[in-house]
């Protein structure tokens, strides 16, 4: 049941505010941890392991989390992960204060537990959006959510780099606690409809299998999902090496690493603004396909740049282009998925889909660290760029993918008659 449309704007803006507050503090801490590992170890393998631990729970648990999201109270699923992140921030902070060092194993455990908590949070956010806004506004509001997430990514690296330089790490980590308090304070006022009560017994494997069957039965979306998984397999290893690319290959600093993240996120903010303002395209697959080329070409070129400050300047410019393209793929695809299935089924569908998209990233990262340490981090960017362009060509050439949104809009129009 939808929230009263007369009040939905106030409700959704309270929701977006809560996500901004928890998101920005969490990301500052996340960046600080990655920069700490980069500065202390300089190892691509360590960064790969850290990224894998951040992604693996999403890949392994999402299919089983989805059915729970369809049944459990949505607000609790949004609040509890923030509390878990705050608890582990305190543990890590106390460890740093007592032992004057952050054991790598404890950092890995903290990243793993934060990721497990977020595995519940992400599909919950994705599944409640269609219940909180009118159908006609779904793409636009998804764009606004993307803008909030992008704004976090613009502010967090710059603020994080500044705070990393002036605040001891054990105190900087406690920002997660502040973010949880502020975000939850806003979230308790948000009206989030729960799905109708499901009295049938919960069979995790059955629900997961059913979600997979529903996804596979939609051929166009299934092929897009597989292509997206290949895209993640190729691009994630390069994405995890951004701090190392800046600080080791281009001989830069933590501040420059933060600057790159700010530029990329500024591009994402611009891309989210484009969707939020002009996002009601008749055929959303066109910008989705275009975005693959806008990501692939600059990524490949980045790996060919000279390893000096001149190359860094061009690297920064290319990252703005990639940033603009990123929400065109993610946000528009999510809006199409949300409109492809009833809200009560979205949890299990998104659980399976998130798992597929998340699993390939860690698989690529297993080889990324050793490959970057032996051949150079820039090699990963060349491979990722060429592969992403091939993915774009593939989607462009297959009619069931290229025409997916046109067919979806036709089905939605017929259902309204």
UniProtKB/TrEMBL annotation:
Main location per the UniProt record: membrane
Family matches, as SUPFAM superfamilies: MFS general substrate transporter
Membrane topology, as annotated: Multi-pass membrane protein
Annotated Major facilitator superfamily (MFS) profile domain residues: 11-403
InterPro entries hit by this protein: MFS, MFS_dom, MFS_trans_sf
Residues spanning the membrane: 12-37, 43-64, 173-192, 221-242, 262-281, 288-306, 312-337, 349-368, 380-401
A Pfam cross-reference name: MFS_1
GO molecular function, one term: transmembrane transporter activity
PROSITE patterns: MFS
Keywords of this entry: Cell membrane, Membrane, Transmembrane, Transmembrane helix, Transport
Subcellular locations according to the entry: Cell membrane
Name used for this protein in its record: Major facilitator superfamily protein
């Amino acid at each position: 049941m939808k929230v009263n449309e007369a009040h939905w704007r106030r409700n959704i803006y309270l929701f977006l505010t809560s996500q901004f507050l928890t998101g920005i503090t969490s990301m500052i801490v996340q960046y600080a941890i990655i920069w700490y590992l980069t500065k202390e170890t300089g190892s691509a393998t360590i960064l790969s392991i850290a990224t894998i631990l951040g992604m693996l729970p999403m890949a392994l648990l999402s299919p089983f989390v989805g059915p729970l999201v369809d049944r459990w109270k949505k607000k609790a699923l949004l609040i509890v992960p923030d509390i878990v992140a705050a608890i582990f921030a305190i543990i890590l902070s106390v460890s740093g204060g007592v032992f004057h060092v952050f054991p790598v194993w404890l950092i890995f455990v903290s990243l793993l537990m934060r990721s497990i908590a977020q595995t519940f949070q992400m599909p919950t956010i994705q599944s409640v959006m269609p219940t909180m806004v009118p159908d006609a506004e779904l793409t636009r509001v998804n764009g606004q959510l993307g803008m909030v997430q992008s704004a976090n990514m613009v502010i967090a690296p710059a603020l994080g780099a500044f705070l990393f330089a002036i605040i001891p790490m054990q105190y900087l980590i406690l920002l997660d606690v502040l973010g949880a308090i502020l975000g939850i304070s806003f979230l308790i006022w948000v009206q989030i409809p729960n799905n109708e009560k499901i009295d049938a017994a919960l069979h995790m494997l059955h629900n997961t299998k059913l979600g997979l069957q529903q996804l596979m039965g939609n051929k166009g979306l299934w092929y897009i999902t597989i292509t997206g998984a290949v895209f993640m397999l190729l691009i994630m290893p390069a994405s995890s090496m951004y701090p190392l690319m800046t600080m080791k290959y281009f001989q830069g600093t933590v501040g420059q690493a933060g600057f790159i993240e700010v530029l990329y996120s500024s591009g994402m903010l611009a891309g989210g603004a484009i969707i939020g303002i002009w996002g009601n395209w008749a055929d959303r697959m066109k910008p989705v396909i275009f975005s693959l080329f806008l990501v692939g070409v600059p990524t490949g070129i980045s790996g060919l740049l000279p390893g000096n400050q001149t190359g860094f300047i061009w690297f920064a410019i290319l990252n703005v282009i990639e940033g603009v393209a990123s929400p065109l793929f993610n946000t528009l695809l999510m809006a199409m998925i949300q409109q492809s299935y009833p809200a009560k089924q979205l949890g299990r569908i998104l659980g399976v889909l998130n798992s597929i998209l998340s699993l390939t990233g860690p698989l690529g990262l297993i080889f990324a660290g050793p490959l970057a340490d032996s051949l150079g981090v820039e090699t990963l960017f060349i491979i990722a760029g060429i592969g992403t362009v091939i993915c774009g060509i593939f989607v462009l050439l297959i009619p069931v993918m290229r025409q997916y949104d046109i067919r979806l809009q036709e089905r939605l129009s017929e259902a309204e008659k």
